[in-house]
Design goal:
By secondary structure, the chain is α+β, with helices and mostly antiparallel strands. Helix content is 52%, strand content 23%.
Length: 195
C-alpha cells in the first residue's frame, strides 16, 4: 500500500477530503453526460420542429379545403340532433293477472329539418300511451311484446319522430318479487316514409 493511502486510513480529515474529491468527480461526470444529452435533445428538436410545422400546415390546409367543399355541397344541411324525453311515474295497469305499477321512460329523436308546427306536444304522446295501455287487448302478453307494439304505434302516429326508445319498468308485485324492465328502441322505416 502506498504511503498516501495509509495516511487517508489513519487521518479522518484526509479520508473525508478524499471522499469529497471522489463525490465531486462523480458529480462532474454526471453533469458532463447531462450536458451532452441536453445538447443532443436541442439539436434533435431543431431538426424535427420544421417537419412538424410543415405537417401541421399541410393537415390544416387539407381540413380547410375539405370543410369548404362540405359546406358548399351541403349548404343547407344541418347536423343537428334533437331529442326529447319524459317519464310517466306510477302508472297502474291490470296486466298478467294482477295490478302492476309501471314507470315508463320515453325518449325520442326528431327528424332533421322539421318545422315548429311539426313538433308533437309530449302531453298528447303521454295520453296516447295511457290510452294504449288501458285498452291493451292481450292481458297475458309479455312486457317486451307490449313495449314493441307501443313503440310501433307511436312511430306510426308521429311521423316526425326518427326514432324512439321506451323503457317500461315493472315494480315488485305479489306474484313476481323482482324489479324488471323492457327496453325497446325502434327507428322509422325508410320505406314507410316514401309516399
Amino acid at each position: 500500500m502506498s504511503a498516501g493511502r495509509e495516511k487517508h486510513k489513519k487521518c479522518p480529515v484526509l479520508r473525508i477530503s478524499a471522499l469529497k474529491n471522489d463525490l465531486f468527480e462523480t458529480l462532474l461526470a454526471i453533469f458532463t453526460n447531462m450536458k451532452q444529452i441536453l445538447f443532443s435533445a436541442i439539436v434533435l428538436a431543431l431538426f424535427i420542429t420544421p417537419v412538424w410545422t410543415q405537417k401541421a400546415a399541410s393537415t390544416d390546409s387539407k381540413a380547410l379545403i375539405t370543410k369548404q367543399a362540405a359546406s358548399s355541397k351541403y349548404e343547407n344541411f344541418d347536423l343537428l340532433t334533437e331529442e326529447f324525453s319524459f317519464l310517466i311515474q306510477d302508472f297502474k295497469i291490470n296486466h298478467q293477472l294482477e295490478v302492476n305499477n309501471l314507470n315508463i321512460k320515453i325518449r325520442y329523436r326528431y327528424e332533421n329539418g322539421i318545422t315548429e308546427s311539426e313538433y308533437p306536444d309530449f302531453r298528447a304522446i303521454v295520453k296516447d300511451i295511457e290510452d294504449f295501455l288501458n285498452n291493451y287487448p292481450n292481458k297475458t302478453d309479455y312486457w317486451e311484446i307490449l313495449n314493441k307494439k307501443l313503440t310501433l304505434m307511436l312511430l306510426k302516429k308521429y311521423p316526425t319522430l326518427e326514432s324512439i326508445t321506451s323503457e317500461i319498468q315493472v315494480s315488485l308485485s305479489q306474484k313476481v318479487a323482482y324489479l324488471r324492465s323492457s327496453i325497446v328502441s325502434r327507428n322509422q322505416s325508410k320505406r314507410a316514409k316514401i309516399k
